[in-house]
Fold this sequence. Notes:
InterPro entries: Methyltransf_11 (IPR013216), SAM-dependent_MTases_sf (IPR029063). The protein has 254 residues and is of the alpha/beta class.
Amino acid sequence: MLTVDFTRFPVAAGDRVLDLGCGAGRHAFECYRRGARVVALDRNGDEIREVASWFAAMREAGEAPEGATATAVEGDALALPFPDDSFDVVIVSEVLEHIPDDRGVLAEMERVLRPGGRIAVTVPRYGPEKVCWTLSDAYHEVEGGHIRIYRADDLLRRIRQSGLRPYGVHHAHALHSPYWWLKCAFGVHREGDEAALPVRAYHRMLVWDIVKRPFATRFADRLLNPVIGKSFVAYATKPQLRAAPRAAGAAERA
Length: 254
């Protein structure tokens, strides 16, 4: 289930891509399939090892085109182990809401992104997220949980302050908002057979939707995204370097 829309945020073969806070690796895998040179980074060593094993399985199955590469790295989003201007594309999906120093993460993203490169940032949307917080303290008051709720204008302002230029936004995963509202209402930590019947039933529908992608649910998701989309997605570019102006004397002699 991808949050970044790759029709609005194209990744080409050979692009150097950083999936920052990659989690289970969903966006890293998609970029790898598109022929990119991917680095998936996360501070969770267990997840990084799992992502690395999936990269290996994809290589073995021939799912990535010739020339594509993929590496999984354990690291800190506030101290990225890469030189300046290392990547053409940086993705940070559902990460910033977990980190106290989100401005520091955006500054590191800007540092490692080459001039002219593009970033995609996704966070939980304010309205649906506020409902979850209202229904359940356990939803966010956990170790590593969500520590803030972003308004769209606030996130875009922080992106601009980091030296990046937003160029597009949208919402995603409308059908997932009611699922999380049900989870929060009936017990967010109740999983599997312990979950309430409405939660189990809705989860089955979501799995069916993800696997089968029927027209009816895809249409409903697109229709409802502007209203209750679970995620807010922003795209931005890093400005190209400008040539330094010539000295006045040199201009006069020209």
